[in-house]
Amino acid sequence: MTTRAWLALPDGRPDPALTRRLRAAHEALVTLGGPPPRDQVRTVVWDSWRRSLGSGVDPDGGAPPVDLLDGDLLTYRAAHPLSPVLPVIRRLLVEDAEADQMIVAVTDAAGRMLWVEGDRRLRSRAEGVNFVEGARWSEEVAGTNAPGTALAVDHAVQIYGSEHYRRPVQNWSCSAAPVHHPVTGVLLGAIDVTGGDHVASPQVLTLVRATVAAVESELRWLHREELAGGRPVPPNPRPVPRLDVLGRERARLRLPAGPVELSLRHSELLLLLAEAAVTGHGRTAEELAAECHAGDAAAVTVRAELSRLRRLVGAHLVASRPYRLLGPLDTDLDQVRRLLGRGAVGPALERYPGAVLPRSLAPGVVVARQRVAALLRQAVLTSRRPELLLRYGTLPEAQDDVAVWQTCLEWLPPGSPRRPAVTAHLHRLRRAPRGPLRVH
């Protein structure tokens, strides 16, 4: 392809007619699967749309997943080859990003966002589509987007507005280029600039390419320094086991050796130990019995269950006298709470498929379930963002929540096509017989 083929707006100016043509071609593809008229869509974009369609990306679906959080993200970033050259990226791109109304993102080779910096207002908006650190924006997951497509085709590329495959991100434009190790040629990741239409101008892609050249030059110098000084390359971080309890009748424990499906009782016990570890304390058999059974229960029963659990997951994970975790254990419940604590409501909602072990009657589990549900509900309500309220309203616990639907109606724009459906649903809720008063 010629250099011009990788540019979204060769003349540097957005065109409403181009947007209409792109949206018509996109609609034809996702509904009919047919090719667009000649010259309506750039080849690089059309090929990416077809790959996105073949990967099963939903053009109207939810935001990309967040793969790395908190400690896992920090450990992974610290060991990544692009970490030492971050000052170069900040000096060339990030320092002027706020004045230029841009977000600067650095990904790994799998499309996971490692650093997202720049204009604070734009970053706050971008949280709504999970354009956040730790999220995976590879093309097969997030559809056509500049960093994901740059990694897929191994070339610098721009994606303008409606060239994105997923409609929720068609208000953004982006320019990105892949970064390679200058000695081995290994693909390390991508550098991306995201913002409004002006980010699709040829000058921005030139700036991104120049930054990549400077980064690869710095990497070459660092490589020579390592050879001269004999400094070892940092090892890959050891994965932390994770317990999934949200929206699941029984927990799933993800271990380095593979996933383990737990019984409901073992799910409850391991979650209670993970909750206790947050405060740095263990639990006696009597304390676990009280948290695990609604009525009186003998501690000997809990000891027997914990003995079986230790045989199942390994004594290296769970210790006794008192019962406690021997190492880090992340939970999807804790991930949601951490995101809410940072004010990242959109990513938190994306990571919340449903209540904590909904079938469990264990008092300790019920408390954890009610607390995170209340935190999430309050965060969504106070966000006053219709897209988050609508997404939250699809959860079983929110479908009959009048306050949620009323707030959503109040903040939907007057011309929104969603208003009639929200109004009708709210009307049905108000006419329905009143059940027990909900407590949050």
From TrEMBL:
Xref: InterPro entries: GAF-like_dom_sf
Protein name per Swiss-Prot or TrEMBL: Phytochrome sensor protein
